[in-house]
Amino acid sequence: MSKGTWVFIGFIGVAVVALLTQIPGTPVWRLFNPTLTVTVAGPGGGAEPIELKIISVLPRDAIVAILDPTFVSGDEAAAQMVPTSRVIGLSINGDHRAYSTAQLSSREVVNDTVGGVPVAVTW
User: Fold this and answer.
1) What is the rounded CA–CA span in Å between residue 123 and residue 116?
2) What's the structural domain count of the chain?
3) Which residue range(s) make up the domain with 13?
4) Rounded CA gap, 26 and 28, in Å?
5) Calpha distance 39→47 (Å, rounded)
6) Confidence tier at 117 by pLDDT (50, 70, 90)
């Protein structure tokens, strides 16, 4: 077989695996969508496991975290936002940050260091 045929077969194989990760119930789907077991205390104080399914719309690691956030001054932020804009505020060791939820909506996670402490800000 020619090199082009092998490339085509490889492409089809990748496409099939990608499709199987999206079809609930297939072994490949279960690999990316595990079941979560939660244990709760029953009326008698004993632990009763409850099995819950985690259903995700996106595959694992589909949303890439912001790793090196940049910030604007308070005046610049005020010019870009309205009084009802939501932010996640964080203050550690005298270092203050505000993360706009509007900007976090597309990425959802910021890995940052605030006041010398590594943090993960999630939305």
Assistant:
1) 22
2) 2
3) 3-53
4) 5
5) 6
6) very high
